[in-house]
Each structure stands twice: as C-alpha cells, then as structure tokens.
Specification:
Radius of gyration: 13 Å
Strand content: 5-15%
C-alpha cells in the first residue's frame, strides 16, 4: 500500500493522471493515463532501453492510452519505485514532456519517508 501510494504521489507530481476511477485502484499494479501525444509503447521502450526499467502498456483497448507499473513483492520498495519514477520522468522528457525534473521522485520519496 505504501509503495502504491508513493508511486501515485510521484505520478501526480509529474502532472499525470491515474486510470481509472480511484475507488478501484489496486495496490499491486497502477494504471496511468499517458500524456496527450505520447505513445505508451514508446515510453515503455525508452524506459527499458535507455534506463533499464521495465513497465508495461495497458491491456486490450487501453493499450494505446495507458501505462502499467507494478508495486508488489520485491518491487514494492523504495529501491524499485523511486528509480521507476525517475526513469518515467526522464523517458517522458526524452519524448517531449515538460514536467518539473525530480518532482515525481521527490513526491514518492516523501511518502516513503512518512512510512518508515
């Protein structure tokens, strides 16, 4: 739950939106709306190839509009969530995004700091 909260805080700080309605969010996998004009597959490829972080696109009909990031087991820790947020920020910047550098990582870090 803490890792998912940290990821969501980071995503929000980057100006991105979660998908779908908050009442059905999961603590094991988060779905994020891709920014307008950004291909989720390009984000996945950039994060994998340039930054060594694996995430996925959405499934089926939302494959071309969303990203999926897991926070379960080993990946539910600051050692995985914070580098994932960093790589997401960098990949989005590489693909034309304009977010504040480090905002997502800082927000995620604050959540982990508040829940030692």
């Amino acid at each position: 739950a803490v890792a998912a909260a940290a990821l969501r805080a980071g995503v929000a700080a980057m100006g991105l939106e979660m998908f779908p309605d908050p009442s059905i969010w999961s603590n094991t996998v988060s779905s994020i709306k891709a920014p307008a004009g950004v291909d989720p597959a390009a984000v996945v490829a950039r994060m994998r190839d340039q930054y060594g972080i694996l995430i996925g696109t959405g499934l089926d009909t939302i494959r071309t509009t969303t990203l999926r990031i897991g926070t379960m087991g080993l990946t539910a820790s600051p050692l995985y969530v914070l580098p994932t947020l960093s790589a997401l920020e960098l990949a989005l910047r590489d693909l034309g995004g304009k977010g504040e550098p480090g905002a997502g990582v800082a927000a995620g870090h604050r959540v982990f700091a508040d829940h030692p």
